[in-house]
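RECORD TYPE: protein structure
NAME: ArsA-related P-loop ATPase
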Amino acid sequence: MSGLQRLHVVTGKGGTGKTTVAAALALALAADGRRTLLVEVEGRQGIAQLFETEPLPYGERRIASAPGGGDVYALAIDAEQALLDYLQMFYRMGSAGRALRRLGAIDFVTTIAPGLRDVLLTGKACEAARRQDKHGRHAYDAVVMDAPPTGRITRFLGVNAEVAGLAKAGPIHNHARSVMRVLTSARTAVHLVTVLEDMPVQETVDGVAELREAGLPVGAAVVNMVRPALMDDAELARAEADPAALAAALSAAGLGGASRGARAERLVTPLLRQAHEHTERLALERTQRAALARLELPQYELPLLTDGVDLAGLYRLSGELGKQWPL
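PREDICTED:
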């Protein structure tokens, strides 16, 4: 496993594929007989869709086998149910809590106090990361949280410090402080998912700065949906310098049938235009990679799956992570 890290928090700007990366990371961490728990906190059931399984309940359920015989379990944390657990654990109010739920009071509380909701969500994930059996063995080798987007992640993880400050003593204070001890420890890492475009990379840069300022441990940057480089600047220059040779190569490839020479010549201009666009994109990606490199974080890349991410594709991405990341 990567160092001493046991809780892996995965965030990223919307559209960068953070849920896919979290799922692939959970599979990679479970390889060779290990057990991981994949936690969803946003209620979107994105994990169930990726693994092509039924919607996740509020209960840990095995959803996949990893290469080498490991297992991936998953949990969709429900704030109301987590509050019931909390009331039972600290106040022995199991039956009273269920009565409050019937009255709609729990939904009211978690709506008017969003900070409390985040405390419950993070607390459940931290509890899973710390849980041990009677022999002192951890229930899971790693816990992976599919967390809220980058723009909200520092507030989401740091809310326990605020709650601990508001409640000077008692179970709420102690619970929030214990959660913050986990979240700020070397056993936790916040990984940021991005794609090589201006806005996602800038949000990643800003997110890393906010996390570091808040004293939260930053892990790795994962560059997702990377397109292959098909032509570099030198190859484009050669093609532009001798368009007749390009036309001849296209004709030799069998384009155009009986009049393939003329048709091949007509293809040269649009092909060179597309080649220009491609090399311009590569230049932009080099700029974005340089911005990420300045963060001085481990950086891993995952390819764009042109047919979309199905279960087979998820295992492929997991294998790519496993080859690059010292898990």
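COMMENT: The CA atoms of residues 63 and 256 lie 51 Å apart.
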